[in-house]
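Reading a protein record of the kind used here takes only a little practice. The record below shows the convention in full.

——
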Amino acid sequence: MSDETWLRTSIATSTADSITVRDRDLASELMGQVSFTELTFLLVAGRQATPEEARLLDAVLVSLADHGLTPTALAARLTYTGAPESLQGAVAAGLLGAGTVFLGVVEDTATFLAAILEEVGDAQDDTALRPAAEAAVRLRIDEGRRVPGLGHPIHKAEDPRTPRMYAIAEETGLLGPHLRLLRLVAEAHGAATGKSLPINGAGVAGAALADLGFPPALMRGFALVARTAGIVGHLAEEKAQPLGMPLYQEIDRRAVYEPGEDPKS
């Protein structure tokens, strides 16, 4: 394999006097002309977003930026406490916790919905989606597995981000099969368990991203782009109003040491 066949990129390049991003001059065609959300869409999708697509993607990024003193924010703050000279390390520490409980649900939900839609095929109206949703939910329950995108530790009745995301999707004409299916999944779960779990913000974000045409494998990346802004905000506050050291001292003071069992006994 020669260099010409594999060593290439369509993302960006630069010369002594110019920078080109996705075939557009960075200085004259992008800076001051597009928002960061529009640039994100361009970089990932390789094309310019429509105004409707940009609005929905922007809503997704805003919805995921921050949610308070979550474990991801605390990880960043505590890392900064121990290494204030390494802002990048603190940001990275905050992003590393994106998994099945926090942020990673964006990807997990999209993957779950995509598998159902693949089974249904082209018949993607609610009449076809409802039994498919019911079967997928029942299988998860029987396997003792969580249905991704449902439930929230704080928003027990309704995640305030969810109805707003659906409203924006409808207003932009981008309420697609993934978002519609997620509603049916929530209904099926409630009927099967007798428990009404709300669609959470990460789940609805994943469905919206999928309806924008992004593959599930990239979903977590969007969540990390959004949460980076929140983490930098937390680190700015940590620098001005530290809670990392008081938190560590409080835990150290209250933690109870329990001797372990003697391995020889």
User: Anything to note?
Assistant: Residues 74 and 94 are 7 Å apart (CA to CA). The first helix runs from residue 3 to 6. The radius of gyration is 22 Å.
